[in-house]
Amino acid sequence: MKRRYAIGFLTIATLAIFWFLATGPLALISPGRFPSPPDVWASLKQVSTKGYANGLLYQHVLHSLKLVALGFVVAIGTGVPLGLLMGWSRRAEAIINPVFSIIRPIPPLAWIPLAILWLGLGDAAKVMVIWFAAFVPSVINSFTGVRRIEPYVIEAARMLGTPRWRFVREVLIPAAAPLIFTGMRLSLQASWTTLVAAELVGALYGLGRILNVAQQDIYPGMIFVGMACVAILGWATTRLLAEVETRSLPWIQMARA
């Protein structure tokens, strides 16, 4: 574990040194195409202290976190139960899957015009787009998790006369939990990926707003700050979800060890 972290740190440090040399002393890359570390630092100081694109950095970060959290929670709250239902009930799958199969290939960004038409330019439209992006992976992985349960587990529960709700709570969900969490990780990644595009339209705050304004201003340093914030927040929230998974499924970690 320590060796893996050391290798990762060495890789990042090497890239940082190359970045500094290529944009600075060696002048291999034009500052107009890719910012140097001093340019990024100056941009970070500006957005943190004076503000940029209608707000300070913490305001943009909090707004983006709120949108991702809302879209992700709604997607998990609707996608996981639907996937479990489709996986357990052949009848439910026959009814729901044709509609889901039609909607599934539609890119999340294609919903932006309809979201604006239905919900306006406020946060609700952005949450809807994020919800759809995160909804699909949660449904698919929850469905697959149920279908991969060994038949003898289900038969044993039936022979013991386990009540339906107890079976769902104590057998179905725990057995499908590893793939449910896989779907949640994919959903979280999709939420962050879609956030920036959703915030490009009609947003007053958010990291997507920073990127949009910086692109119009031809401000590479600020663009890099916005991208770095998305990367850091995406990594941090993924790590948080991984910690929740570890605490929720300790037997998985024991098996891997």
Structure description:
This protein has 257 residues and is an all-alpha fold. It has 2 domains: 1-30; 33-256, MetI-like fold (Orthogonal Bundle). It has 11 helices and no strands. It is globular, with a radius of gyration of 22 Å. The termini are close together. The model has no long low-confidence stretch (mean pLDDT 87).
Helix content: over 70%
Structural class designation = mainly alpha
CATH architecture of the largest domain: Orthogonal Bundle
The termini sit apart by: 12 Å
Describe what is shown at a glance.
This protein is an all-alpha fold and 257 residues long. The chain has eleven helices and no strands.
Blueprint (SSEs and pairs):
Blueprint: H1 2-23, H2 37-50, H3 57-88, H4 90-103, H5 112-119, H6 123-147, H7 151-159, H8 164-199, H9 207-217, H10 220-248, H11 250-256
Helix pairs in contact: 2-10, 3-4, 3-6, 3-8, 3-9, 5-6, 6-8, 8-9, 8-10, 9-10
Task: Output the keywords.
single chain, 257 residues, mainly alpha, MetI-like fold, 81% helix, 0% strand, globular
